[in-house]
Amino acid sequence: MRDATPGTIHLKDYQPPGYLVNRTELHFLLGEEDTIVTSKLHLLRNTEGSSSGELELDGQDLELVEIRLDGEILEADRYELREASLLLRDLPEQCLLSCVTRIQPQLNTSLEGLYRSQTMFCTQCEAEGFRKITYYLDRPDVMSVFTVTIDADASRYPVLLSNGNLEETTLLPSGDTRVVWHDPFPKPSYLFALVAGQLEHVEDSFVTCSGRDVTLRIYVEEKDIDKCGHAMDSLQRSMRWDEERFGREYDLDIFNVVAVDDFNMGAMENKSLNIFNTSCVLCDPDTTTDVGYQRVEAIVAHEYFHNWSGNRVTCRDWFQLSLKEGFTVFRDAEFSSDMGSRTVKRVEDVTLLRSAQFAEDAGPMAHPVRPESYIEINNFYTLTVYEKGAEVVRMIHTLLGPDAFRAGSDLYFERHDGQAVTCEDFVLAMEEASGKDLSQFRNWYSQAGTPRLAVSESWDEDAGAYTLSVAQSCPPTPGQAEKKPFVIPLGIGLLGDAGNLRLQLEGEEPDPELEDNTHTVLMVDQQQQDFVFTGLPEKPVPSLLRGFSAPVRLDFDYSREDLCRLMSGDDDGFVRWDSAQTLAVGVIAEVQQQLASGGEPVVDPLFLQASIQLLQDPSLDPAMLAEMLTLPSENYLAELAGEGAADVDAIHSARRAVQAAVGGHCAQALEQRYRELRVEEAYAASGAQIAARSLRATCLTYLAAAGERGLELAQEQFSAADNITERLSALRVLSHFGKRADWEQPMEQFYKDWGHETLAVNQWLALQATMPDDAAVARVRHLMEHPDFDIRNPNKVRSLVGTFAGQNPVNFHRADGTGYRLLRQIVAELNAINPQIASRLLAPLTKWRYYSGRADLMRAELEQLAALDGLSPDVFEVVSKSLK
Ligand code: 0A1
Ligand code: ZN
């Protein structure tokens, strides 16, 4: 924590390091009270840096015990201890610097650096946690070869792990065990890891494409040893996929994964020693939902893929974070698409992007994919850097085509292996391999905000010519009033009476080679452009932004009939889903108006009819059907309403009314599908079973919205379920649509049955946090007193408070302000315990500009936080930027 106002760090101020650390030797003496860390840094002056003998090492919350230069104790006048650094003067060009520091991991509640989780020691060093372990050049462009020695009490810590290969294990005269790990690959400090504890492991192996045998291990607490199978399978699939799709082979003989309960994020890609939040690795039908299984597969893959996109080639500085994260998210999304349904995966990703990333882009913390400044880097592990960053890579893939993209990726890895590089280096490799000019495309890296495409049409019957006029714009974001035009790949098709029409753009030669020319990608790169299609037999309905070809908001004035045609007849699965969403948005808005003027809601019969048709369409995969039937979320509807116009209560009531109308109108079809899709076999996280359960949950929701029948079926489902997915979907329906008498007993039963499983309890907390009834705030407060709640455990805080603030709009935004107050109080408390979590939790309060009639209440809470003593830089940055 800093007392003075924290400073801003700018990309433009980047300077190469003054020294390099060729080798790093670390020695840990792990103790219950004190841990002693001895470092030996083999320093070499950097010819590319400023050539002085001054060196400032980062260090935070450390007690310096001793410091030596080339073996000699360093006198106090040769160095200066600053608040968060150690300044050394007059260093020779090459030297050995040794430091002894004392730390107390058991008191480290920030979960950065070395800390305790339950009975084990573990580390989290990204982004700047290593400086809480020892004095170091804690920046990603300093890459070093690490050798790590750990001494610890063998009875308490039989498992002692670090990066690379285990070189020796010895029993010391003291009775402690000593292990030595050596990682041959140079790496930045953020990829260092250490684990010590009483852990069991499962082991398997993988033979790489060149025939090397790799040992794979997953370390967990003994009680969880049966929950590792899915993660292990996922790891093996990821390793094979990365070889086949990206030509990336694993490079060491061992790959370890460790599960820890207390973790700020999902998982971490430390070289050969990935550390995972238990929630992202353990799987069991009674504790992990279907979505959870899919998430584990995706996160295991994501961390594994970082071995190349992140570790072998890393970031020069933290402004380049999307270089590794955007690319790796793109890679894991491709992997998930290949493992399951590509369209469903795309729909899920777009749903997240549009409901949450677009909001970030429109809020006070908006930043480009490559930010230009930050106060606290931990605040920039955002949906923009990760998800929009992945969209930017996806657009490059679209612009280049799969072969040139792969050539660009190969060139990037080959050219930069072992280096710390920039987003620009990535783009350059893509340009060189493809021969394409991406100059203007680079605006996606430097400009924040979600571009808008306003599309209109005109039809010349006589000429058979159809014109699409496209105008792009991008709203101002903090520090960026004006935007230059983006390059926007716009996937399109034209739908005629009998299906998608052949496309012929005016001025372009017809391509006789092309069999299927019903799809094309238009390059929108100016503020205003016309695209003319000729030779058309009829006026088409345009199918726009196919596959969500760019992260933009698109407006086109569709009639409801046209949306229905696209929904049922377009070739593009994404457009079919998106048309259903657009239709639903319009219908909900209409009902919202009817309710506001005191009338009875009348849901457009066209919409009801379309819903029946969808339910009876045998060509639709059930997972896709579930997506198409799911109404846009309340958060997305609020986001669409725009600044000052989101009325959460009206949105909630209107959405409910539409749900009830569909449920009533389609009752028979819904119940029929619900029954047909019942899974008779034992639980498996297979695509078919997951799809069936997902559609059943959707049907059940509609039935319960319409009346008692849904509640009866939900009670039955809850009692009969052999897995948490169906238990929770039943309980969700009961607690959202039923009376207290409907949900109280099953809610208690769930805890009785699964209260011993932390991950199940977390979901039980989360479910209660979403309940829309009037008692919600009191319930959340009450649960914060529950013996299973622990403010120091991020999973608990996220499950209960994060879910409440993020997914219970009517109660978080209560007009009496009690929802806001609850959030502010816990953020204030967490500020001192775990600033990273405090600041992440705060995000929903920053959107005060959106909520009609609530802005003053929300601002008042932010102002109270701003006035707190000892504000962490994390919370300071979010609060101060959102009050501007
Ligand atoms: N690099 C990890 C995520 C991660 C980021 C930051 C952390 O602490 C601040 C921890 C983990 C990933 O992308 O999976
Ligand atoms: Zn990542």
From TrEMBL:
Which InterPro entries does the protein's record reference?
A: Aminopeptidase_N-like_N (IPR045357), Aminopeptidase_N-like_N_sf (IPR042097), PepN_Ig-like_sf (IPR038438), Peptidase_M1 (IPR001930), Peptidase_M1_dom (IPR014782), Peptidase_M1_pepN (IPR012779), Peptidase_M1_pepN_C (IPR024601), Peptidase_M1_pepN_C_sf (IPR037144)
Q: Report domain Peptidase M1 alanyl aminopeptidase C-terminal positions.
A: 561-884
Residue ranges occupied by any Peptidase M1 membrane alanine aminopeptidase domain in the UniProt entry = 231-443
Name any cofactors this protein relies on: Zn(2+)
Every copy of the Aminopeptidase N-like N-terminal domain together lies at 104-191
Q: Which residues form the Peptidase M1 alanyl aminopeptidase Ig-like fold domain?
A: 449-556
Keywords for this protein: Aminopeptidase, Hydrolase, Metal-binding, Metalloprotease, Protease, Zinc
Instruction: List the catalytic activities from the record.
Output: Release of an N-terminal amino acid, Xaa-|-Yaa- from a peptide, amide or arylamide. Xaa is preferably Ala, but may be most amino acids including Pro (slow action). When a terminal hydrophobic residue is followed by a prolyl residue, the two may be released as an intact Xaa-Pro dipeptide
**What are its GO biological-process terms?**
proteolysis
Q: Which family does it belong to?
A: Belongs to the peptidase M1 family.
| NCBIfam families associated with the record | pepN_proteo
Function, as annotated, reads: Aminopeptidase N is involved in the degradation of intracellular peptides generated by protein breakdown during normal growth as well as in response to nutrient starvation.
Q: What is this protein called?
A: Aminopeptidase N
